[in-house]
Amino acid sequence: MYKVFKRIIDFTLSLFGLIVLLLPMGIIALLIKKEDGGPILFLQDRMGINGQKFKIYKFRTMIENAENVGTGLDSYSDDFRVTKIGYFLRNTSLDEIPQLFNILKGDMSIVGPRPPVYKTFINYPNIDKKFLIRFTVKPGITGLAQVNGRNELSWDEKIIYDKKYVESCHGIVGFIQDLKIIFKTIIKVLKNEGAYDKEGN
Hints:
By secondary structure, the protein is mainly alpha-helical. Helices cover about 45% and strands about 10% of the residues. The chain has seven helices and four strands; from the N terminus they run H-H-E-E-H-H-E-H-E-H-H. A two-stranded antiparallel sheet has the order 1-2. It has a two-stranded parallel ribbon with strand order 3-4.
C-alpha cells in the first residue's frame, strides 16, 4: 500500500508542480538559450529501480559537452564549465525542476536514492552487493543522503544513508520519513548547502 499511495502522491504533486511552474520554466528556458544558444535541457543516462536505464531531465547548467572537459562528472564551486545562469540554477536547485517529468513518467519518485550515472554501474547486477539495495526502490529528486550532505558526501557515505532509507521505506514510517526529508530538503535549498562536490570525494 505504501508503494501505491506513494505513486499516487508522486503523480499528483509532479503534475501540479509542472502546471504551477510552467511560467518560471519558460523564463528559465529563454535565459539558458539566450546565454549561449545551446540546448535548454541536459539529458543523461541514469540507473533506476532494478537497474533500469532512463534519461534524466535537468535544465542545462554547464557548457555543451561538459562531461568531456575539465573534471568530467565531478563539479566544484569554482567550475569554469558552469554558465552564468547555471550558477543561479544550481544554487537554487531550479535545475532539478524538469525531473518532475521523470516522476510523471514513473522513472523517479519525489523521495528516494539519487539515480547514479548509468555507466558508473554498467555491470549491474554483478556489482558490490552493498550498492544493490539502492536499486530496490525508485530513485528520487531528493533523499536521505541529500539532506545529510548531498554532493559533499563520499560514495560510501551516500550508500549508508541510502541503505537506511530503503530499510525504513514502508508503511506509516515510510511516509513520515519522506515528509521529513522533503521538509529538510527545503531548508537545505534555502541555505544553499551541498550544491557542489567536495574535493577529494
